[in-house]
């Protein structure tokens, strides 16, 4: 991979980290009664849009998220890790593709807010799909996918698999310790939230509903069922995941064949 393309991918990783840090900080502040709000990625961007220089920050964030989309699609089509042509390999590449699509949607939304459009048909295609006769079946399928993702995040946390995506050779001892703690805490919190999203989505689908739950729904569930302290801890875990992404951006394990 050329230096320009690698730097674009690094910028994307940092942009994703910034989104998670903002979600975590806003939700933690809300949990501890210090302002803020329980929010997901789009809510975090809406918060940015209301700040001074918010449009500029959103435009930069949108470009950064496109860098992350580029990296995910590079993983899909260039296969830098040399994944085998088997079910496991194709499964990972499909997951990378879905991740790229999701963050492409976030990038589009960031640009939409940056250029003054907070209205329109965002999510209308998904809304139409879910309101159809097969909405409950689609909700169940999405819920199962979320559950698999949640389990994988928890597996990554406690097997230290997340360290494979970071080149540790250039780190000092303090930075390595931060990587381990932030990565484990962040993946645990993210896995727990996605797991709750899966539970709520499956609950809706099995009850003949068609609601796909969001991070905000999961945060509200944690607040109602477990209290503000637990919500605050989970939210701080999101900040930890953001820190992990910053470290990943600084020391990415991108040692792959050139893409000229």
Automatic annotation (TrEMBL):
Pfam families: DUF1206. Residues 11-76, 95-158, 185-249 form the DUF1206 domain. It comes from the Bacteria. Keywords: Membrane, Transmembrane, Transmembrane helix. The chain crosses the membrane at residues 12-33, 53-74, 94-115, 135-155, 226-247. InterPro entries: DUF1206. This is DUF1206 domain-containing protein. It comes from Christiangramia sabulilitoris.
